Amino acid sequence: xxxxxxxxxxxxxxxxxxxxxxxxxxxxxxxxxxxxxxxxxxxxxxxxxxxxxxxxxxxxxxxxxxxxxxxxxxxxxxxxxxxxxxxxxxxxxxxxxxxxxxxxxxxxxxxxxxxxxxxxxxxxxxxxxxxxxxxxxxxxxxxxxxxxxxxxxxxxxxxxxxxxxxxxxxxxxxxxxxxxxxxxxxxxxxxxxxxxxxxxxxxxxxxxxxxxxxxxxxxxxxxxxxxxxxxxxxxxxxxxxxxxxxxxxxxxxxxxxxxxxxxxxxxxxxxxxxxxxxxxxxxxxxxxxxxxxxxxxxxxxxxxxxxxxxxxxxxxxxxxxxxxxxxxxxxxxxxxxxxxxxxxxxxxxxxxxxxxxxxxxxxxxxxxxxx
Length: 371
Description:
Arc Repressor Mutant, subunit A; five-stranded antiparallel sheet; alpha+beta; single chain; 17 helices; Beta-Lactamase; 3 domains
């Protein structure tokens, strides 16, 4: 294998002999002043990311991902050009138009970049996978040879990507450990599409816990605010808080949810769509039936003088939630919930928390009598 032959290096990377980053470096070496990147871009929302690079420093990469991917004027043209055809940037957008853009002034000019060559390796919906070289040499004639090289590499990269790409999986040791702990797990992709589900997680869907999977295979939650938080975890760029924990209340018992964004690097960042792992723990209480209807507790609340917060805590207790779970659900401290439970016992005459739960489920709460 020639050490600097990009095609040979692609197949060496495919079998694990070299990292794919070496392919990018070999391509970059063909252009003396080049800066090369294997990257993706979503034309629907404007987000993009340099996954593998050569010739860029980390500051350049960060600035592109954060500020300039969404204003890259070449990307709308890249979404329309034929897949696999290497092109010179001036063929898509004349330099006189490029130089009037914020992308040129803020990103290209500080790097000394005058033009670029690129190829769309694969297009899936609005998501593009591309290889591009930024260069200080302007004009179509000066860059035609480099564009032809990228066109030659495109089919080899496309074949390799189809081998590399693997759907997220919950099979194997990880799933077995989670099952042993009584925890269900789902892998969620774009639009909350369920890409993988463990046995326990699947058993919780459609059972009154507020978890449903629609006909398109997307997870739907009974609480729109929690669902919106899940969707934010799938945003580009990475969310400031890549995980959260809460409790989902359904028609039946409650479920503890722990969601975390899966952060991919290098090749995985290029090939994989944003993914979230969702861990599900069914919370069981002192009963096997549904939660008491909140409306059913209204007479109790009035007769005992319960506040709205105390009534909601009472319902949660009857659903089997521990004080810490209720605190998570309500967004307050555990001590606040304990104080509310103490007030409930005083107002209802229940001596213990277990008595309070049984009385609530029986629907026979009465205020304490004097004397």
